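#onboarding

Welcome to the new folks! Below is a worked example of what a typical request in this channel looks like: someone posts a single protein sequence, and someone else replies with the predicted structure as tokens. Don't worry about understanding the tokens yet, we'll cover that in week two.

Example request:
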Amino acid sequence: MEKFLKCERDGAVMTLTMNQPENRNPLTGNTAIAEFLAACQQIEADPTIKVVIITGAGAAFCSGGNVKDMQRYSRDAIAPMPIRDEYRHGIQRLPLALYNLEVPTIAAVNGAAIGAGCDLACMCDIRIASESAKFAESFIKVGIVPGDGGAWLLPRIVGASKAAEMSFTGDAVDAQAALACGLVSQVVPEDQLMAAARALAARIAANPGPTLRLTKRLLREGQHVRLDTLLELSAAFQAMAHKTSQHEEAVAAFIEKRPPRFE
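Example response:
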């Protein structure tokens, strides 16, 4: 069986392309979750990777859960507890791995990001959309709830009111509406999407890798701790950053008015 994820390395940038375009790149009913988890583990362990781009092959970014596969829950009379465990040990491992990945992540949303596909984009730090992209928190349309963390992720990005509107209606928003509500930070022509994502990744990757990871961790912790707790953590991280060779080189380059040469 062909792998779900196509992994490509270009210097400090890793691109993960969901590669089941014939099925619109679903996250269930295949090996998607296991492959994402393995990729996150590899990226986390490799300090030379500074940025990750996630995109989809074909016309869709990600169609979310495989709806046809969901029929087995009623057809096979599966009890609620095994279904709960399937979520906990399956797709729910994805937000824990991807959202907490210390490397900055960019979702290059090339087309429809539906249900768990919308939430997958929300697990990333930055979202760039092509003009043909659309987003839908569409679980309600098939009679289920966001089972993969969308109810936690989406309000933090678009605000409580817009998240409620998207979740209660299941309606899709186009790229320009996504830009207006802050779901994405850029909308570009379809044929320029990957160039824009790579250009942004290059600007990020030009910075020191260890400090990028520490900065992302502070941003994540800042969402749920008190200010005084975050300040304590920031002081500890700053002490670590001051002792890196990258900090020493960055300061020297600034004083000498030259580009830094990081290891």
